[in-house]
Design brief:
With 142 residues, the protein is α+β, with helices and mostly antiparallel strands. Helix content is 28%, strand content 20%. The chain is built from 5 helices and 6 strands.
Length: 142
């Protein structure tokens, strides 16, 4: 997406813009240097089906320094990433991603507040940052 929000800040304005264009009932976010795990879509689908009502879902992510994020199911800066987030469309379209490094935390906090604190913390890892060859599952199958 070439939309830069007039700020020449890439990543955060695009997420806000694209989420507002979304037509699917759920919106998942990613970044250009991350990949989805082999089972990411299955994990997301299963988590959505288990929701008593649509609410934000916070998955886990493998950070570039190979630490799993989130560490504990508590929302705070440094414990969430864009690749962890799956929102119902209605919430995704209300969230504004902050124009700074922790813009993903801003989005997660807003989604949390919009959902009245009703979120799901799923322990499944759905994304890997700056993947090593071992994480390139589609190449291993070729």
């Amino acid at each position: 997406v070439t939309h830069d929000g007039g700020r020449h800040c890439f990543g955060q304005p695009q997420r806000t813009y694209v989420a507002r264009q979304a037509r699917a009932p759920w919106v998942a976010f990613t970044q250009d240097d991350n990949i989805a795990t082999r089972d990411a879509l299955a994990y997301i689908e299963m988590a959505i089906e288990q929701q008593p009502s649509p609410r934000p879902i916070f998955f886990r992510w493998l950070a570039p320094w190979r630490e799993v994020i989130w560490r504990v199911p508590i929302l705070f800066a440094g414990n969430i990433d864009a690749d962890c987030l799956v929102f119902p469309r209605a919430i995704a379209q209300e969230v504004v991603w902050g124009l700074h490094y922790e813009g993903d935390f801003d989005a997660a906090r807003q989604a949390y507040e919009l959902a009245g604190g009703e979120v799901s913390w799923c322990e499944d890892i759905i994304s890997v940052a700056r993947p090593d060859a071992e994480h390139l599952w589609w190449k291993a199958a070729a």
